[in-house]
Amino acid sequence: MGINISEIVKFQELEMTALMGRTIVIDAYNWTYQFLSTIRDRFTGEPLRDSKGNTTSHLSGLFYRTAKILEAGITPVYVWDGKPPDLKLAEIERRVAGREAAKELWKEAVKKGDVEKIKLYAQQAVRLTKDMVEEAKKLLTYMGISWIQAPSEGEAQCSHMCRKGQAWATASQDFDSLAFGSPRLIRNLSITGKRKLPRKEQYINVKPEMLVLEDALKELGINQDQLILLGILVGTDYNTGGIKGIGPKKALDLVKKEKTFENVMKAVEARWEHESDPMKIFEFFKNPPAEDGEIKKEKLQPDKLIELMVEEHEFGQERTQKVIDRLSGAAESQKQTGLAKFLG
Fold first, then answer.
1. Residue 79: strand pairing partners
2. Do the beta carbons of residue 75 and residue 81 sit within 8 Å?
3. In terms of DSSP H, where are the helices of the chain?
4. Are 155 and 182 in contact (CB under 8 A)?
5. In sequence order, what are the beta bridge partners of 171?
6. Which of 73, 74, 66 is nearest to 139 (CA)?
7. How far is the CA of 129 from the CAs of 41, 55, 56, 136, in angstroms?
8. Which domains are delineated in the chain?
9. How far apart are CA 231 and CA 282, in angstroms?
């Protein structure tokens, strides 16, 4: 879920071509959950499965979407969450309980044939298992796509890599990477194209959007520490719900007025209802676990892709081969572009 400050920040809409030649680090869990949520049967809410009952929605999303990104001349690097901090345990327990409740509501919606509620509750009941994650990593490796295992929060690792210059931007639908200090955040990279509006027979075009951290801070009139404070006030994964009655606009006014952590926390002390220590949350955003290291280059393995996607999970042979051919073409194109830059 993360921090929600969409009311007070403005994203710049981009064409995919504007990201050509860039290395983008991707919040892998965020994207994989999206694919599991959206690639489902409209009338039952069930995810894609092979004949053995294995869920394949996440593999489908990663396979086809990543190929499209590569064809746009973008170099993706997926970053997977590691061990969650103790601060997040309450949120994880809340999510588990929420998924179980959603499962029951989903069953009732199916009985009634309520298509809108089937979709809503099926998405809320999404569960990403360790086996799914390991299989997704295997798919990326076979596609020739680099991935990183973060020591803790994936978005913290993404932000660290961007600050070090290993990548240009973080791709996620959440705002947490900004609080962790990522210089750029790109949204909608995983869902570009036409999208149906909820409960309406109407479609909109979805394009990538970018927010530059430095520009956003200037426009809001705050610094990085105050952005973290703002996030704590509206709610993070470490204090779900934030302070009751304080939304993004009120939080912005408060941090601009009170300025420091001590003053802001003193102003809301009587309304703090969380077990977590706000100073520990603040310090976690300031200094999260993250590791240095080189991005490991992978090679496209067509035979392994056929084995995994077609033979094991029954994806169509012809369509899979077409994507493999596209991957091969995209890889060759990126080689030529890199060589031209080196010689030029």
1. 27, 148
2. no
3. 28-38, 57-71, 89-112, 115-124, 130-143, 154-163, 176-179, 213-220, 224-234, 248-258, 261-268, 278-286, 302-305, 317-343
4. yes
5. 26, 186
6. 66
7. 20, 10, 12, 11
8. 1-216 (3.40.50.1010), 221-287 (1.10.150.20)
9. 9
Span 50-86, pLDDT tens digits: 999 999 999 999 999 999 999 999 999 999 999 999 9
- How would DSSP label each residue in 206-251? E--EEEEHHHHHHHHT--HHHHHHHHHHH-BTTBTT-STT--HHHH
Mean pLDDT of the chain: 93
User: What tokens appear for 296 in the block?
Assistant: 């490991």
Contact 110, 31 (CB under 8 A): no
DSSP state of 82: -
* CB atoms near residue 169 (< 10 Å): 25
**pLDDT tier at 336, thresholds 50, 70, 90:** low
Residue 337 pLDDT grade (very low, low, confident, very high; cuts 50, 70, 90): low
Least Cα distance to 124 among 96, 145, 149 occurs for 96
What is the rounded CA–CA span in Å between residue 89 and residue 92? 5
**Which among 266, 334, 341, 264 has a CA at the least distance from the CA of 300?**
334
**Crossing angle of helices 57-71/317-343, nearest 10°?**
30
Amino acid found at 120 = L
Side by side, the strands of the sheet bearing 146-149 are 12-13, 209-212, 184-187, 169-171, 23-27, 75-80, 146-149
The mean pLDDT of 306-326, rounded to a whole number, is 97
